[in-house]
Design goal:
- With about 300 residues, the protein is an alpha+beta fold.
- It has two domains: about 10-165, Chloramphenicol acetyltransferase-like domain (Chloramphenicol Acetyltransferase), CATH 3.30.559; about 205-305, Nonribosomal peptide synthetase, condensation domain (Chloramphenicol Acetyltransferase).
- It has seven helices and eight strands.
- Helix 2 links the parallel strand 4 (about 65-70) and strand 5.
- Helix 1 crosses helix 3.
- The longest helix is centred in the first third of the chain and has 22 residues, at about 80-100.
Length: about 300
């Protein structure tokens, strides 16, 4: 995919953390150097050798935090309120522009496939203390969502002076295990199961939308967040407990039912991300374990919701 369009950033994994209070820039850089030394994945690059993609793990890699300072809002007692608000807005706009420019293509042949940026917003009138934006960007080829959580957690602990227990295994050990004879036998059983599950004609969801489904899908979109009230949340948990199901299973059933109500279709495939970390020792590794599981459900009209 990278070869199709080396300038594509769809597989970048950026995140921005706001840090309030004093921050030691040199210490931030030192901690990330420790993390790069700790996780072989962060020293991994990729090359084609005889048309085969190969991963190379470097002993050391060049790294530096990209540091930028923007002028903070005024904090003096006689600062006009409107001026302070305007300055605060300007700082936010400039910070957003810096974040946007921070996300750019990676060269997969050059490690680390991680970059870190720090935006110093100064002492702002609203918070009355130093503010920083800590920007992270990793390529998906070496990372997933859980990895981002691992990296963030370990950064905070190392910055606080905590010593982390050494990692017993690295991602390359997981890759070798995946190729083992025992795992291959297990994979053959998995393959047989899934081929059986998806035999026959596969359904395509036919939602009534404003426009026809495009031949080439776009990644343009948005995220909508909402919260359930406490009463609804408790009732859902009760339903899960009464039926011996997890809350996830209840919500998946509700989602499948909703799609059935919209379309009238009784054969629906829902893709769901899975962490893909079946062993406890994998939970603290940075790497690509995530996968998408396609679940084929049959919400036929003669079934009750409990069914």
């Amino acid at each position: 995919l990278h070869q199709f369009d080396p300038q594509d950033v769809n597989y970048n994994m950026p995140s921005v953390l706001q840090v309030s209070g004093p921050l030691d820039v040199k210490r931030v850089e030192d901690v990330f150097c420790q993390l790069i030394a700790r996780h072989a994945t962060l020293r991994t690059r990729f090359e084609l050798i005889d048309s085969e993609p190969m991963q190379w793990i470097e002993d050391t890699v060049p790294f530096a935090v990209e540091y930028t300072k923007v002028q903070a809002a005024g904090t003096t007692a006689d600062t006009d309120q409107d001026t302070t608000t305007d300055t605060y807005t300007r700082v936010n706009i400039e910070a957003q522009q810096l974040v946007s420019r921070f996300v750019r293509p990676f060269d997969l042949q050059a490690a680390p496939l991680l970059r870190v940026g720090l935006v110093d917003l100064g002492v702002q009138e609203v918070e009355q203390e130093a503010q920083h934006l800590l920007m992270l960007d990793m390529h998906h080829i070496v990372s997933d969502g859980v990895s981002l959580e691992v990296l963030t957690d370990e950064f905070v602990r190392l910055y606080d002076g905590e010593e982390l227990a050494p990692l017993r295994i690295q991602y390359k050990d997981y890759a070798v295990w995946q190729q083992s004879e025992a795992h291959q036998e297990w994979m053959q059983r998995q393959e047989a199961y899934w081929l059986n599950t998806f035999q026959g004609e596969l359904p395509v969801l036919d939602l009534s939308t404003d426009f026809a489904r495009p031949a080439v899908q776009s990644t343009a979109g948005d995220t909508i967040e909402f919260a359930l009230g406490r009463e609804v949340s408790e009732r859902l948990k009760e339903l899960a407990a009464q039926t011996g199901a997890t809350l996830y299973m209840v919500l998946l059933a509700a989602y499948t039912t909703l799609l059935h109500k919209y379309t009238g279709q009784e054969d629906i495939v829902v893709g769901t991300p899975i962490a893909g970390r079946p062993h406890a020792e994998l939970e603290s590794l940075v790497g690509v374990f995530i996968n998408t599981l396609a679940m084929r459900n049959y919400p036929s009209s003669d079934k009750s919701f409990l069914d």
